[in-house]
Amino acid sequence: MSILIKNAKLLLTPTKTIEKGNLYIEDKKIVDFKKHSADTVIDASDHVVMPGLINAHTHIPMVFLRGLAEDLPLKQWLEKEVWPREKKVNGKIVYHAALLGMAEALASGTTSIVDMYFFQKELATAAKESGIRAWLGYGSMDGVPSSELDTEIKNERAAIRAVMDTGSERVMPIISPHSPYTCSKELLIHSGEASKELNLPLQIHVSETKDEVKQLRKVVGKPPLKYLDTLGLIGPRTIIAHGVWLTPGEVMLTSKRGATLAHCPVSNFKLGSGIAPIHKYIEKGMNVALGTDGPASNNSLNMFEEMKVAALGQKLSVPDFASRKVIDMATVNGARPLDGQLGELKPGNKADIIIMNLNGPNMAPVVNKTQIINNLVYGARGSNLSHVIVNGEVVAKDGRALRIDVEKSSRLLLKEMDKRGVL
Amino acid sequence: MSILIKNAKLLLTPTKTIEKGNLYIEDKKIVDFKKHSADTVIDASDHVVMPGLINAHTHIPMVFLRGLAEDLPLKQWLEKEVWPREKKVNGKIVYHAALLGMAEALASGTTSIVDMYFFQKELATAAKESGIRAWLGYGSMDGVPSSELDTEIKNERAAIRAVMDTGSERVMPIISPHSPYTCSKELLIHSGEASKELNLPLQIHVSETKDEVKQLRKVVGKPPLKYLDTLGLIGPRTIIAHGVWLTPGEVMLTSKRGATLAHCPVSNFKLGSGIAPIHKYIEKGMNVALGTDGPASNNSLNMFEEMKVAALGQKLSVPDFASRKVIDMATVNGARPLDGQLGELKPGNKADIIIMNLNGPNMAPVVNKTQIINNLVYGARGSNLSHVIVNGEVVAKDGRALRIDVEKSSRLLLKEMDKRGVL
Question: Are B371 and B11 spatial neighbours (Cβ–Cβ below 8 Å)?
């Protein structure tokens, strides 16, 4: 199958553009910027074509919890509202909630997600069916000190197998120990080794809240990221989720190791965790990506909104923070730990591409390249998207994920939640 | 003309709901919640019907500056980018830019705007044509000390006449001295008197930045709001825009006077002005409304986004801040200084109403009333709107403002900007 996108403004990266050009896709990849005959021709006059957005940290099935419990601090929220409900969750709930989340993500321009949750078989099935590109991780946790190390290692292995079993090149596993405060030293060491042995990326929650950092320091005598580094977890394929409270030393270390931070500003605001000073992190050479976190603490899976809030959060203290940087965060920086063939429009890269209509009143007037980039950060909405292409296939069009039946999944999700007493 | 909205979830106010009911509109007003035959019947099953959103502070024609200059601190941004361009602006630019802004506002659920700008004739024409409800103010400023008091008083009177001359009941003037640091004492006193004599609301920028407060205190020996109060400007029909840096005494005074604060969180973040502690203001009894500020410093005119950012900004320090409160801010609180017949769905009130589809994946699953309200704050988008009704007329449908030709206004705006050297 081939697609020709013609007459488009091409945003290859935030600093490399083609004013009016073509983009040719064949066999799931970007071939070149020439004109070709193709199975599908998309006339993209008055449109911007850019890399699909990469949501570098989420818990997508938490759609089932969206809006159900609000206005609580993190600890109470987890202990009173989230965990009791999560105990009753089954694969069916995860499957339908994930499909709804993927529909929202795709419709608003996200082509890749990095997820951490449970029920990998159902999650992988949802990802395969939806058309999204997904790294799915089993959030392993065995307690500190360990109470179920072997079980968790077994669970993790089964989860990896379940993901691989889909046989989809778009659906991949990621090693995902939950955090240094919920995983034993042994499980953490095992996770780092597994990542290297299996050549898989690794994600872990680090320094989300001030309290959690304080508590952990008491137990292990080091700040969280340094601790994880001594256990071998911090490298170029590592995604650190949150990192709101990294010490200057940890910032340097993260940069030196080439690890990626997944900044999740909406969730960090909403749970009162704080604003990660990513302008400083970027200055120190850190690769900063962007994530929505789970829809229970956001409550959206919308990377355009996340870009805006990310920029706003920095501008509060650094008004000249360059907006363009958040486009890097949402594209190429997210790709780095995952897949070298994503995040930029260039020949040979995988065809994960979004096409935005510039004719909406929220994007008007269209004056020049710099202004379009600013408007992509501050003004664009998912509703401006005309096409979302993943792996060379149009999977969303005009704000609708084509492969997902939203009405059906909503209905079946509610039915199952009711049955299991999750409502 | 009559409209019956049937089978809807009615959110009369954030705390008063009807699970499944009807809403009947006749002669531009809400009549009752019974079934009637009507000229237009809207089946709103799986929809929420709520009061239209009130944008309590904006400069809507600044659409022409949107995205053109970014990443600068306030002073440089104004002096280098905004003011030189604004000098070249004419009525045509304002007219088309305003139409684009009104299209965006209407399509995303805003039924009323409070504006401060220049070229009231063209602005009023745009408002009349677009179908939006608008309070339009001439941003008067004569310098401190005054250099052109008489001219500004004349300009203001002419602007009021221009607005009244449209003859539209939806389009009204508002007295709008720019700020205590750009207006002389005489102009401020005159403005307060004019507001009372003409029975018009009054809006003014107050305490947006820390520096501005410091500077003014040096000149007048008082904090800004206290100063304005001694000049007679602070009363129940006053809208204070921003108020990021009010002193505790000023907060008490604002509450006592029954004045309204228009909180503009996105703009305050983006220009690095700070986060107004509105949770404290509300606690002290202040009527807090919500505004987007101008699209040059936002860059959107989207009140759903503004609600979310408003909630996030408070949650950063007060995680249990009740999300519901921002719906009050965006509806009934905004109505208070303007028009007692707006902001709530009740018999006799003006029919400014929005209808939201709950079937989008970003709103799923729909569980209960509280959860819907949470999702309206954190998950809803303009794209969920099916109908926007102002003064009993459907003026936007499925994300499109029906009376505005966006393509035409974009084209003519660009042409005129080019001609005047504004690009």
Answer: no
